[in-house]
Amino acid sequence: MKKGLILEGGAMRGMFTVGVTDVMMEHGIEPDGVIGVSAGAAFGCNYKSRQPGRALRYNKTFARDKRYSGIGSLLRTGNFFNAEFAYHTVPKHYDLFDNNTFERNPMEFYLVCTDIDTGKAVYKRCDRGGDEFYEWVRASASMPVVSRAVELAGMKLLDGGMADSIPLQYFESIGYKRNIVILTQPRGYVKHVNKAMPIIKMSLRKHRGAVEAMKRRHVMYNEQTAYVARAENEGRCLVIRPDDYLPIGHISHNPEEMQLVYDIGRNTGKRYIKAMKEFLSTED
Known about the structure:
The protein is an alpha/beta fold. Helix content is 46%, strand content 15%. A hairpin with a 2-residue loop joins β5 and β6. α1 (14-26) packs parallel to α2 (39-48). The longest helix has 27 residues, at 255-281. The protein is globular and about 50 Å long.
């Protein structure tokens, strides 16, 4: 029976996830597979490459670097996070992504994108590092309105959270029957209709599937959190979430905020070490 790790997105709330997963790596907790959505993919790939500390480090280093992200990049390129610098220059020249370890590690790594023509989730297993992989990660983390679609495998792709924010059901469907789920919102969080829907409709007006996905995203998300709660009650998954709302926005250029949220994640992860080891060692 395969054991999995599921990483929700949430943009810079993902620093909480980084704190938890860094502690997991430091304690030798290695699931059979990981699936990440959006920031969960961008930061979670460091689990397979066994690089604790990396996601926090490069985000703090380039937090205020205009080459990395910002309105200037959005106006120049159509991407708030600069496609070339953030997703290729940084991992190849500044804070190296360990492609060799990523490829040698038998842990399976999946990420989720959204096909903006159909509005459906696209699940990609990534076994090799390098430029094409970085583009899949970029696609998974490319938020609508502030990102251009990424064209891969004949599809136009954006943020995986548009179609499948918490892919527990998908992971169970491919054989992962015991899963740790890391969420970036506290217990009881309910998602509501996106207040930016008029802007989203305008931005995605040529892609009806994506517009429909975004119109019902809050419904999908709330159904998924309910499913996770049932699975948790039945003992099929172990859920790790912040105790309260995280003190950071979707976007942050503040290294101190990032460190604070990361530390919250680390402290939460430490509380769960014993529970995680026991959960993953249990066979049904």
